[in-house]
Amino acid sequence: MMDMAGQENLLVRLRGILGTDGLLVDEAARQVYARDASHLTLGRPLAVALPATEAEAAAVLAACSEAGIPVVCRGTGTGLSGGAVPPEGAVVLATSRLDRIGPVVARANRVRCEPGVLNSRVTLHASAHGLHFAPDPSSQSTATIGGNIAENAGGPHCLRHGVTLQHLHGLQWCDARGRRLATGRHLPAERGFDLTSLLCGSEGTLGLVTAAELALVPDPAEVATLLAFFPVLDDATAAVVELLGAGLLPVAVEIVDQAMLLAVEEAFAFGFPTDVEAAMICEFAGSPEDVAEDGARAEALLTAGGARRVHLAADADERLELWKCRKKAFGAVGRLAPSYVTMDVVVPLAELPPLVRRIQAIKAMHGVEIATAFHAGDGNLHPGVHYDNRSEEDTRRAHAAADAIIRTALARGGSCTGEHGVGLEKIHVLPWQIDRETARLQQEIKMLFDPDNLLNPGKLLPPLESEFAGLPPVPRGVDFAWESLTVTAPAGTRLARIQTRARERGLWIPVGVFGDAPPGGMGGGGTVADLVNHLLPGPALLPGGSGRDFLLELWAATGDGRPFHCGAPVFKNVAGYDLTRALCGSAGRFVRPLAATFQLRPAPETAAMFRFETDFEAPGFEAGLAGLLSFLDRVASGTAGSSCILDQVTGTITVAIAGRDRDWDLGRWPGCLAGIWPDLELRQKRQVPFSRSSDLLTGDLLPAWVLNSPRWSFQAPLPGRGDETVAPAGKTRLIWQGKPRLWWVPDHESPAAGWHSEPFLATGEFSPLSEPDSAVPRDFLRGLKRIFDPRNELGGPDWLIGGRHGD
Amino acid sequence: MAIDPVPLNREVEDLLRRCVECGLCLPHCATWLGTGNEVNSPRGRLVLLRDLLNRPGNEAPQAYLEAFDLCIGCRACETACPSGVPFSLLERGQELAMARLERKPGRQAGVPGGEFLLRHLDSKSFLKTAGKAGGVARRVLAALAGNEWRKKLDSGPAGSLVRLLGTMPTAPGTDSELQLLLDRKCGRERHVCGNSAAVGAKAAKPPGDLEPRVAFFTGCANGGLLSATSRRLVELLTAAGCEVVLPTGQDCCGALASHTGRPGRAAALRRENQAAFAPYLTGRTRILVEAAGGGLEMKETSEEGLAARISDAVVLLAELDLPPLGEVPLRVAYHDPCHARHGQGIVAEPRQLLRRIPGLELVEPTEPEVCCGSGGAWGLTHPELSARLARRKAADLAATGADLVVTSNPGCLGQIADGLALEDPGLPILPLTDLLWYAWRCANGCAQENVAGSGR
Fold first, then answer.
1. Backbone angles phi, psi at B430, to 5 degrees
2. Is B384 on the interface with A (CB under 8 A)?
3. CB of A543 closer than 8 Å to CB of A636
4. What is this structure's pTM?
5. In DSSP terms, which residues pair with A255 in a beta bridge?
6. Residue A230, H or E segment
7. By CB atoms within 10 Å of each CB, which of A520, A707, A745, B297 scores lowest?
8. pLDDT at residue number A102
9. How far is it, in rounded angstroms, from Cα A82 to Cα A275?
10. Mean pLDDT, to the nearest integer, of A90-112?
11. Does B243 touch chain A (CB under 8 A)?
């Protein structure tokens, strides 16, 4: 820590940057900003900075870095793990004035915003376009996008749509020294170390996000929300396993237990029965037919599973009312006890019922009160242990019970945190979960990005002296956990083998529809390692973004042969840096995969893909395209997905759909499609049952450049082979869509996109607000390469470590 | 102010424990939205209050008091709070900090002449005079600087005085002025109805139990500045079959006095009103209050017999079987006064009333629960933030694409009018009851009078 004069100098400098209005040093600010929603504190900050622009934020970071003063970035302080709590004498950088939001890029389903924008404002902003931002933590009315990214926030609807990371196209950010950087996902097919995955969930320890490019999800045509009451809690959890095992994929499945139900009832008097042990909200979304069918199946399953009453929300108002009950549950527990610890454990789905039973036992054993609300479909529980913080004994017992719950979850293959983050709260717990080598890698990454340990020090990273968990044995055979909907397999396992067996059960890893061979040139006939190393590009990206989104757990060895393990076989996990996702797609140049666990999802009934020639200049083309896209959006909001490539160079459109049989009832397709697809009728014959969809695989369907470009960049695309790229003719237009992503390259030279300019993303990548210093991420990528492969044994071309192809 | 610290602290401590610091109150708090500073949020203020209670000794930092002072008192946090933390805690925090700092209650005005204004804001006669003078001043400015005088003079040397004029609650002083404004908005070239007070169809035949006697509370701002609106409301109520009486001896509700640190005057006003309305506390008589702020103050501070009969004008109208309403083909946004929405839970009634008007399309702003930054005297004591919040609210209302904004509290009326003058000068704001009165007149079919020939 520095002396008084040094502090005074820093404050003078900060005041010069922010003005008196933007720098708070009074006692009230130092008291208020010492806290967040976690009830944990470390000390009082020296000052609070409220930058109003990215430049101010960068200057604050630079000034603090030079003065050697720690900086804690903060949104609205709704985090529950103490991530925004500053140590004594730190500068708190609050993003509340960085709250601009750009225009919605409707056809690309994107919007760009600053970190202080509230989560719910994004959806409000996009609602006129029939879009929304899917991650919806219970705090969404208050929580900021910056905080969501820092914690990789989840929420009920992440069951179907994925967590925050899966809704990021790119980030603009500042490092510890205030250097402005951009990292984008040009495409899911981008290969290399994924900095976006690393930054998302890093809890403010690696940098400050100053703008984000968010993916928006189309609003579903129809939503059905079921409310079921279970006299027996165990029946409710078992019903969730049953429901998902039956191939149903609700957008959300939530449970609140009796204690929580009582608190909510007392607070808001919804009129729910309080003599039941559990209430469940189960929501389906998609086309009216799908929703009706799924809703009816779910209702039957829940009733058979012991639900006393299943009620379908009559309209949107009632649906919102039901969700209000769930989303206000956290606040309502303030009525139950003076204080409480809210946990955030997550377990494989099949372990949900036993864990919930175990929590009841722990409750009795430790003599504590526990109320639980949980994202049941994700296996993510929020047990809240209540206690009176005025009593030492009470406090001790509550924390002992909390630790017991976490140990139970870990013993069942879970993770200590699915959404809330490690922060301050779970830093003593994390070593129970991760192995020493992983901890060391994380520590080295932190040192690379923030060598002076100034960004949010004391969070997320446990000291290396801790006693860490052992490395879990590397799996030697394929292990399907059918009830948990995961599959674990050694790196050499052929994907075809996994997919074939999964399909027998109506499940699949949602990649590689059109044949299980990986893209040409990657060899080996398609193995688990290929999927980890390369992602699967192409229209195979149904329905999510890429294989990265379904990779849950990874065993790998560093270049110099040290094995480590990251992730867990659970659907949500924010215990430490997300190395699993960050390494996915790194082309085998950073680590050697040893084994991996993937998520299984219900397989589509039917899949098909067409390529057809069309006249891009024809009258009716624009209308036809709009119709096609809106139709594909609808399909994508169901269980399956769709994608579409427009290639003006070859004059072709490629459409792929995996969905239900009735999605191929062309009578339901919009009539305006005739404008681009006059012989629509003929194509119907290409439909095949999903189990035989590999018959459709004809390598030439995919333009070779999609498969073989080492790294897509719209600035230097396209037709070519291998590492060669040939600049396209001036007219390339391209749309690529897999839920919820879509890229579009206009055929004209793109102007630099500002906040309120171009409706289309000009360059196909995240357009920075200001010119970043592009050399810096390259330094970081080279540093990462040195951490994972210090002797360069895994090799790799320059573009992998930061050089753009063709640089 | 005498404060017995022990019981106060225990009660406050127990209530404070309910706050789980979840932060769900933040986006509903106008002062947080306006400053981005969490000290100016309900959660922040409660953190300070907790610290005050735990502090050794009897001290309080000045910055703490400023944080409590900045609270507008809109109570949006109380509505938003899932844990049921009462708004009164924030008031207690202010009292405690003031007691510790040995500060007398009362606020510093932030505009020239503001101290005088603060003392006389609740005098009907002063407001009548000020309203007339203000009206003249506004017309002079309009003549000198054009219709958008407010916008042009905003950054000028006398900006704060110009804002004071801009925020003065006004409504059309004559019926023909109101009709002219709305006829134009509706695209009507001529009056579709007359302007004689005698005109107006009565409700068919109100059932016996829906025919209350209404004792009209005029209030200082309504009585002083918006008397034409009050008169039109009486006409409408009469047409709806109500017997309207105007008890003599009534005065201001006392809210402004207590907000400006004059509890003695507030108590005196309460006594006067109690005496004035005492003869009317019989049968099914309702005491009607036009201003949301006045209604809340009287409900909370009057004796039970009186308080139970108090009804907001909008609530009473929503219960009545109104005479037929004519078509008003406008997009209308309603602004909820905080003391109606959060203070009295009045949310559905104004919307139901507006939906009764044929042809009217009701549009909702994105932040209906957020305060406009008027806050009675608060706007005078915090002019800069108040102006920022007015513009924010006006921009939100303008973004609805509305042709007209209506509200039901004089403070909000002036504040939003001022914000709109800067953000969207073409978008007018009126008292809700004036719009209703116009719709009633439109139904009359007494069409033939020409605009040019009527009125002044």
1. -135, 160
2. no
3. yes
4. 0.88
5. A280, A374
6. strand A222-230
7. A520
8. 86
9. 35
10. 86
11. no
